[in-house]
Amino acid sequence: MVALRAAILCETVLTEASGLRSPIRVFSRLALPRGAATDATLLVMLANTEPQANQTHQLVLRVEDAAGTALAEQPFEMTSPLEVGGTFDLVVPFRIAAPPESTLRWLQLSLDGQALTRVPLHLDVIE
C-alpha cells in the first residue's frame, strides 16, 4: 500500500543537492486577471506502508469544478521504491487559466485507481 504524505500547491519546488524537495510560495488561492494564466506546481509526497510487488504506478491528476464535474485529467506513470518506508515524490508542473468568474476548483489525485486526496484551489478573477 502507498500512503500520501503531502500534496502541496506551490509556485515552484526547489530540489537541494541532498535530494530534499522544498515547496516555494505555498498557496490555496490564486488571484488572476480575467483571461490570464499562470504556472504552478503540485508536489506529491508518498510513502510505502507495506512491501510493493510492483515499482510502476499510475497517478492521475483530475481537475474538478465545485460540483465534482471533471474539467481535465492527466495520467502520470511513476516508479517507487519497493521496501516498506520507502518514500518518493512527484513534481507536477501545470498551467492554470483564470475562469470566467471566481470559483473553487479541486485537484483530485488517484494512485492505481484509488483516490488519495482532493486539494482545493480557490481562483479569484480580478479586473
Features:
Immunoglobulin-like; four-stranded antiparallel beta sheet; five-stranded mixed beta sheet; 127 residues; globular; mainly beta
Give a brief outline of the structure.
The protein has 127 residues and is an all-beta fold. It has strands at residues 2-15, 21-26, 29-33, 37-48, 56-65, 70-79, 87-97, 103-111, 114-126. The radius of gyration is 16 Å and the shape is globular.
Structure description:
The structure is a single chain. This protein is mainly β and about 130 residues long. It has one domain (about 1-125): Sandwich (Immunoglobulin-like), CATH 2.60.40. The protein has strands at about 1-15, 20-25, 30-35, 35-50, 55-65, 70-80, 85-95, 105-110, 115-125. It has a 5-stranded mixed sheet with strand order 3-9-8-5-6, with no helix packed on it. The protein is globular and about 50 Å long.
Topology:
Blueprint: E1 2-15, E2 21-26, E3 29-33, E4 37-48, E5 56-65, E6 70-79, E7 87-97, E8 103-111, E9 114-126
Parallel strand pairs: 3-9
Antiparallel strand pairs: 1-2, 1-4, 4-7, 5-6, 5-8, 8-9
Name the average pLDDT.
90
CATH architecture: Sandwich
CATH topology: Immunoglobulin-like
Alpha-carbon Rg, integer: 16 Å
Compute the number of structural domains: 1
Which structural class fits the helix and strand makeup? mainly beta
